[in-house]
Amino acid sequence: MSRSYSTKVAERVVRFPPRARRLLLIGTDSLLLPLAVWLSFWLRLAHPFHPSFQAAGLWLLPAALLVGLPLYAFTGQYKGLTRYVGSRALYRLAGRNGLLVLLLAGIGVMLRLPMPPRSSWILLWLLLTGFTGIVRFALRDLLLSLRSVAHKRQMVHVAIYGAGEAGAQLAAALRLAGNHQIVAFLDDAPSLWKRTINGIPIQPPQVLSQIQNQLDQVLLAIPSLPRSERRRIVAELQRQAIPVLQIPSVDDLTSGRAQIDALRPVAIEDLLGRDPVPPMSELLGPGLRDAVVCVTGAGGSIGSELCRQILQLAPRVLILLESSEPSLYALDQELRQQLPASVKMLPVLGSAADSALVQRLFADRGVQTVFHAAAYKHVPLVEANPLAGLANNVGSTRVVCQAAIAAGVSELVLISTDKAVRPNNVMGASKRLAELVVQASALELSQRAKVVGQTSTRLAMVRFGNVLGSSGSVVPLFRKQIAAGGPITLTHPEIIRYFMTIPEAAELVLQAATLAKGGDVFLLDMGEPVRIKALAEQMVRLSGLSLHDAQNPSGEIEIVCTGLRPGEKLYEELLIDAESEPTKHPLIFRAQERALPPEELYRRLDLLDAAIAAQDVEAALTLLAEMVPEWQRGGSHTKPLSSVALCANDSQA
User: Which of 217, 251, 266 marks a domain boundary?
Assistant: First the structure.
C-alpha cells in the first residue's frame, strides 16, 4: 500500500508543471542569496553579527536580491532542464555569480556605501556558486530518483560490460532514462577493478556468476571490440543464461545514425566472420575514379553493395543494370540520397542476357569497367529450372563479355562462387561454365594481342563463399524460423560453410579488380569455416530462447534435419586443380586454372543456346556435363542422408 502511494506521489512530482518548477528555483535562490551574504561576513569576521555586517549588510542583503534574481533570469538560469544539469551548468553558475559579485561591488563603490572586507567578496562568490550548484544537482538527483520510483515496476537491473568511455556514457544515458538500475560494471582490465564510476563498482567478469540472480540483462558497451573478443565474451555470458544487448557500432555512433543508448540484441552477424582488414588505398579506386562503371545485377545483395562502395570512389557515371523493377527502384531511391554532385547515375531496367541492350549500352555510354554480378544463385530453384539458370548465368556472361570486348571496355570482373568448384548442382556448374566463358574470352584476346599488338580488355573473376545477410542465406531463414517459434530446418548436422559480410566481400572484389592481368581467377580468404548446426544453436541462444533436444525436452526451439537437398555439398571449395598464389593483398589470392580453347567452347555454347531455345533439358544438361566434366550430373560428393535422428541425438556444438 505504501509503495503504491509513494509511486503515485513520485509520478505527480515528475509531472510537476515547468512554471511551478521555475518558481520553486526562484524561491530557493531568494533564500540562498541573503544566506550567502550573511555567511560571507560570518566566515571572514568570525562573528554572526559583526559591526561591519550591520553597516555593509544593510544594503548588500536587499541589493543581492534586487540585482541577483533579475541577473539569473536574464542570463538563462531558469531556462535549463534541471534533470539534465551537468558540469557545464556549474561553470555557467560560477560565471553568473562572478558577474553578480562584480555588480554589487561596483554599486557599493559608485554610491560610496560601506564595504565589507575584500576577502568577503571571494567568499561570497564561492558560497553563491556552491549553494546554487548544490541545490540544482540535488534537485536533479531527486528528480531522477523520483522517475526511478515512478518506473519501479518496469525497472531493469543490468550490468554494463565495459568500463571505458562508452560504458560511462551508456550509464549516464540510462540514468537519465530512469528505467534501468545498474548493478555493476564488468571489465577485463585488472587496473580498473575495485574502482567505481559514479559510485557503481567495477568488477572482473568472473563475478557474474555471483550476481546473475540480481540481473535481467548484460549490456555490452565496447563498440570497437574485435569480433574474436566479442565471440569470446558473448559465449561466456551465454553460459550464464542472461540476455545480452549491445550498443551500436562505432560507425553508427560517429555518423549520428544511432545514440549510445540505442540498445539492440547481439546479432549473429556481429559474431561471424573475422575482424575487418582495412583496404589498401593503392588498390581501392584506380580504374573507377572518374570512370564510367556498370554493375549488372545491381539490385542483388552483392551488386547493390558494389554500387554503394563504387559511389564513394567518385566515378563519373554509375550504370545500374537490373531486371527486377522493384529491386532497381529501391536501389535507385537509396543511392540518390547519397549521390555526390559530381557523379551521374543511370538506372537501366533490363536483362544482362539481352545482347542488343548490353551492346548498345556499353557502346553508347562509353563503359570502361564492368562488374558482372547478375546471376541466379538459389541452388534448389536452379536445380528445378535448369534451362532458366543456364540462360541467365551462362548466356548473360557470354553477352557481357562479347559486348565489353566490342566496346573496348577496359576491365570486366565476373562475380563467381565457391559452388563453381567441383559442382554438385546445376547452379554451380552454370557458374563454372560462366568462368570458362570469361577464361576463353581472355585467352582469345591474348592471342589476338600477340598478332595485332593491341591492348585489350582485361577479364577476371572473383570466387568467394556465402555472404551474411544475402538473399538465400541461412541466417535470415533461421531468424524467420525462430521468430515463428521453430522448428529450424537444417539439411545435415555436419554441413559446413564459410561466411563473409557483404561489405567486406564487395570491398575485396573492388581491390581484386585492380590486380587483374587477364584471365585471372581471384580467391577471397573466407576466414574460419562455420558449422551450420552450431550457427543455428547460437542464433537460438542469442534470441533469448532455449534449444529443444534430448538434453532439454522443455526447450522452445527444435532443430530438425531434413537431409541434403539435390546437389548440396557438405562443404565448399575455392580451387579446382590449381594452386593459389598470394597477391599484394593478404586476403586475395590468384590462381590460373584449366580453360577450354575458345573455338571448342563457343561451338558447344551455340549448341547449348539451341537446346535452351528448344526447351530441351536433356540436351542442355548433356552439353553442360561435357563442358564442365567435374560436375557429377544427378550425383553428389556426399550421399544425401535422412538425418533427423542425427540432429536429434547429436551433441551440442
Answer: 266
